[in-house]
UniProtKB/TrEMBL annotation:
Name of the featured protein: Enhanced intracellular survival protein Eis
InterPro entries: Acetyltransf_17, Acetyltransferase_Eis, Acyl_CoA_acyltransferase, Eis_dom, GNAT_dom, SCP2_sterol-bd_dom_sf
Record keywords: Acyltransferase, Transferase
GO molecular function, one term: acyltransferase activity
């Protein structure tokens, strides 16, 4: 059965979205919603001609330690209340994953309303954020000698200047989005209050930026990108100069920040927040092009993935002389694990030896240790949201 919706279905999908998520209609909301709809594969389920379930799957790309993978972001997974509990959303998610697999998409990300629910479909938590909050009275006193200049602009004006710097930052190359032009425009439409502080060096080169939002009480940092220490210091000083105007400062960082940079770390509230889930859709492609950091002799992995049977097999892989070989074999694997556990390990979120210790996988501890040494070591990082 074909669950794909067409351009003519946008109005019905939007009305279901408003009702299911208790959102208020507005010209601004219609603008960013339409941008998302027009770039997505959109799915819907009808009951007597009425749209009662829906979701979108946005084709994008991610940079995973220098390897570019196709990734579809899932969002607006919804049911009309009178149709909830009938499996409509699950039916559409299965259809979306099946189409991704058929079209060669390697990965999928989503923001879960329930981690338990999406694990049933092969997704796993791999992205966290750390929310930092600091009272203005506890802002550190900075005495940096600043060179270059800071320019303030609305995001709507600044974003074309940010694209290359964003893409070049190592933190955005650990599973982060390769933002196409339309996505930057979508961010502008969705977040009209976002402002940008751009830092230029003495040669007039852009070396960093800060995206932030100001409310009556809070200076909220959305993104903080910098290429060198001088840029970090310039942007930190820019933040501190707002100390008399706001009661609180916050930053939802995609990676932990070193607390020893504060004179009094106790004054800072730091909360780790589960953020997004990921799923390997095309395991053969992910393994074949995976950026292994060390060579290793043949290892076999028995993978369970009942949602996408093409992944469910025993896989033999090895990395020698800069070449990776991946194939299915008819043997019992050295390690047995689910697609969710494999996702955590390959993304660098958990080590195989750690998963083995807690009983999440089974098999040979020496093989787990050997493969761990070949996998990426840095935790994944994602700023964007679907």
């Amino acid at each position: 059965m074909d669950y794909r919706l067409k351009a003519a279905d946008e109005a019905a999908f939007y009305q279901l979205y408003l009702y299911a998520f208790n959102k208020m209609d507005s010209p601004q909301r219609r603008t960013f919603f339409s941008q998302r709809y027009q770039h997505a594969w959109v799915y819907g389920l009808r009951d007597q001609q009425q749209l009662v379930s829906g979701l979108y799957s946005i084709p994008l790309q991610v940079n995973f330690h220098g390897t570019i993978y196709q990734m579809n972001g899932i969002g607006d997974v919804m049911n009309a209340p009178e149709f909830s509990g009938r499996g409509g959303a699950g039916t559409l998610l299965q259809a979306a994953l099946t189409e991704m697999a058929a079209k060669g998409v390697t990965l999928s990300y989503l923001a879960p309303f329930s981690f338990r629910y999406y694990r049933r479909f092969g997704y796993e938590q791999v992205f966290d954020h750390t929310l930092y909050q600091l009272a203005s009275s506890d802002l550190p006193r900075l005495n940096f000698e600043i060179h270059g200049k800071i320019v303030r602009l609305p995001l709507a004006t600044a974003w074309p200047q940010l694209q290359n710097l964003y893409a070049a930052q190592p933190v955005n190359q650990r599973g982060g989005l390769l933002r196409p032009t339309w996505w930057w425009q979508y961010l502008v439409a969705k977040n009209p209050a976002w402002e940008v502080a751009l830092r230029y060096d003495e040669q007039q080169q852009l070396t960093g930026y800060l995206i932030y939002q100001r409310t009556a009480t809070t200076f909220a940092i959305q993104e903080w990108q910098f290429s060198d220490s001088a840029t970090y210091q310039a942007l930190a000083l820019f933040i501190s100069k707002h100390g008399t105007s706001y009661q609180q400062f916050s930053y939802a960082a995609p990676t932990p920040v070193q607390l020893d940079r504060l004179a009094e770390p106790y004054t800072l509230s730091a909360t780790t927040i589960p953020y997004m889930m990921a799923r390997i859709v095309n395991l053969a492609d992910f393994l074949q092009r995976y950026p292994f950091v060390h060579a290793f002799t043949p290892i076999t992995l028995t993978i369970s993935d009942p949602i996408l049977p093409a992944n469910q097999a025993t896989w033999q892989l090895q990395r020698q002389h800069g070449q990776t070989q991946v194939q299915k074999v008819a043997t019992t694997g050295d390690l047995a694990l689910s697609i969710q556990s494999l996702t955590k390990a390959l993304f660098g979120y958990r080590q195989l030896t750690d998963l083995l210790r807690y009983g999440e996988i089974s098999g040979d501890a020496q093989v787990a240790q050997q493969l761990d040494q070949a996998l990426v070591q840095e935790a994944p990082s994602l700023i964007d949201y679907f």
